[in-house]
Design goal:
alpha/beta; elongated; single chain; two-stranded antiparallel sheet; five-stranded parallel beta sheet; about 325 residues; about 45% helix
Length: about 325
């Protein structure tokens, strides 16, 4: 078999997770790794088993992807046989959790002892996956200087409205995520001159001062080490296949809510159920501004004025506008 026909890794996945796996396959290719992906390698009209059998004895490793759709084709006898072949040859078989995996799944017995690669929580997941495939430990790169300097107080509390963000910064630095979440809502009301109303409407978010939005976001990003913040949430939302145009897209909203953990088994969580810690999914916080307080406020108004309203749609509409503002402010 020529070098051109040899593959570095077999990408085993549920077909419903194919878009995410293709994205990873493209990045592996850019890193000089040749992945075997069914969509790229299986010729239409031919049996996939025979085509894969031609390669299985020579592919150097396998990555087993797990996403929101759970286990897929590798549960079949044929796919299990192929993966067992990797195990028998002593090749690395790498379990990989995709970003949209809502919780830790139950792996087949022969995979449970293998070291995971977790795209939900590990910012170096791609490097770890490449390490698993190639056996070459990635070089430790010096961390870039953060956007906000720790000793530059003025840059951390920049505000167009004269808002003091010192308390928010101190809460985040101390890891007091619940208090920081509530403080975020409080300073956003101040910056929007909506303290009297006690809630944010579409107009106030559309006109929210960019300097303040960037300050709040950068503080969250910095002290959560890139896990939380409006800009983190925005990236996840855009990956759901929509534009940040302030419009409500139900399918994208549900995907986003599932991804960040705001929705569990089809139901939006309550504020008392929020997990205020860094083991929460990427983009989980801040939550009080974008979801729960807004939902509760709309529900209260609906009850007060004796009309029915769909609170999830209204609240998701508000956070869609927020993401639109985040894009406009280049946060």
């Amino acid at each position: 078999m020529s070098d051109e026909d040899q593959f570095d890794v077999f990408l085993c996945h549920n077909s419903k997770d194919k878009p995410e796996v293709i994205e990873i396959a493209h990045e592996l290719t850019r890193q000089g790794i040749k992945p075997w992906l069914d969509k790229w390698e299986l010729r239409p009209g031919l049996a996939w088993q025979s085509l894969l059998e031609e390669q299985i004895e020579n592919i150097k490793s396998a990555a087993v992807f797990v996403g929101s759709s759970g286990f897929g084709p590798w549960q079949s006898q044929e796919m299990r046989a192929f993966l067992n072949e990797f195990v028998e040859r002593g090749c690395p078989v790498i379990p990989v959790l995709l970003e949209n995996t809502p919780q830790q799944p139950k792996l087949p017995i022969f995979l449970r002892g293998h070291t995971w690669v977790d795209f939900r929580t590990d910012t170096d997941a791609m490097e770890r996956l490449i390490w698993g495939i190639t056996g070459k430990r990635p070089e430790r790169k010096p961390k870039l200087q953060p956007v906000i300097q720790a000793d530059d107080l003025s840059s951390e509390i920049s505000s167009e409205k004269g808002i003091n963000y010192t308390r928010l910064r101190d809460l985040l630095a101390a890891g007091k995520w619940k208090e920081a979440d509530e403080e975020t809502f409080a300073v956003m009301l101040k910056a929007s001159s909506r303290e009297k109303e006690g809630w944010l409407d579409s107009k106030s978010i559309n006109n929210f001062p960019c300097t303040d939005l960037r300050t709040i976001d950068q503080l969250w990003v910095k002290y959560s080490k890139g896990r939380f913040g409006f800009s983190v949430q925005k990236k996840i939302y855009l990956k759901c296949g929509v534009k940040a145009d302030g419009e409500y897209y139900q399918e994208a909203w549900e995907k986003f809510s599932d991804h960040v953990g705001w929705r569990v088994k089809g139901n939006m969580i309550e504020y008392k159920e929020v997990a205020f810690n860094t083991s929460a999914p990427l983009g989980y916080l801040p939550i009080v501004v974008g979801l729960l307080v807004i939902q509760q406020r709309f529900f209260f108004l609906a009850y007060q004025h004796h009309f029915l309203t769909d609170t999830p749609i209204l609240s998701s509409r508000v956070i869609s506008i927020l993401f639109s503002r985040v894009v406009a402010c280049e946060a």
